[in-house]
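User: My notes are a mess, but here's the protein and flavin mononucleotide's SMILES. Can you give me a structure?
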Amino acid sequence: MDLAAFRALEPLCWRAPSAHNTQPWRLRYEHWAVTVGWDPADALPAGDPTGRDLRLSLGAFVETCLIVAADAGLRLDWTADHDEADRRVGRLRPGRQPYRTPFRAADVRDRRTHRGRFTGGPDADVVAAVDAVVRRAGGAARVVPAAGRLRALLRTADRRVYAEPAVVAELRRWLRLDRACPRYRTDGLSDSCLGLGRVAATGLRAALAAYPALRPLGLPRLLAAGDDPLARGGGVLALIAPPDLDAAGQVEFGRVLMRAWLTLHSAGLAAHPLSQLVDVADTRDALGTLLDVAPERIVHVVRVGRPADPAPRSARRVQHRSSLLAVTPLDAVSLHP
Ligand SMILES: Cc1cc2nc3c(=O)[nH]c(=O)nc-3n(C[C@H](O)[C@H](O)[C@H](O)COP(=O)(O)O)c2cc1C
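Assistant: No problem, the inputs look usable. Here's the predicted complex:
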């Protein structure tokens, strides 16, 4: 396989999801393989101190590369080779046959995180399909009863997150609330993706700018109370990993997460992660009790449903080049907003 052909598809691979849309992956092309690594500048040391979401995002990227390559008829294999010191998770290399996957490049292109209103949650068949995907990797997908208890846990998690100055400072660095910001169209979380109107975006910017002064006066509580995603409908799923997941296992589980999200997408549903429930030890423990599972096995919690309206497309640092047209049937114009 000609790695140059894969390089031409790389912009589409960048449609993979990542926490805070930091796009931490980096590809190193050698003549016989492409090493997948990460840039620590795009990690989230305050919000994701263990690197769990970093590794899930890297795994989601790897799965996306395999899907995109397979859809273009390229024979690409993945060899995991996690090395923290070299900041790499493994290598993509020419294989004997295309990666077997039910997903297409168009799914990668069209999938979006959806933080808005859902008209309904996943039915039993969709839950079973996602569960089957996760079970094949030794885990499970479980419905979290979205009653008052979950709402209270979410409120607690949000309050704890907003109470941490380092986490808030990091979030501010990745928020793109000003359309004039040069990075508005390249990375981070935009006002439109967060579903914030102009007034709400301005209010949030002002509140976060005044955070040091307002924190002791209860700003974290106010910020936490300002959003109630569960009121926007859908169901909530917890992705449960196999026991004793190490760093390399988290990358592999990121691939599972991607397959789970694309399973939802194929069924006309979308995902809205609620990672704060996993980030905060107390709420993760409470979820563990609720689901009768060891809390450390809960690695991802996500609100899931049928979008009432299409979600805005998130930004990417790498844009498509016209050469993409030569190797993929996708309409390159529709790849970007
Ligand atoms: C591991 C992981 C954790 C995430 N956690 C959250 C989260 O807690 N809240 C949220 O709104 N989005 C979360 N996201 C979604 C990302 O913000 C989103 O993927 C990114 O902004 C790119 O947008 P897209 O998914 O529409 O392409 C997470 C994504 C990943 C891969």
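The first strand starts at residue 25 and ends at 29.
User: Great, I'll file this with my notes.
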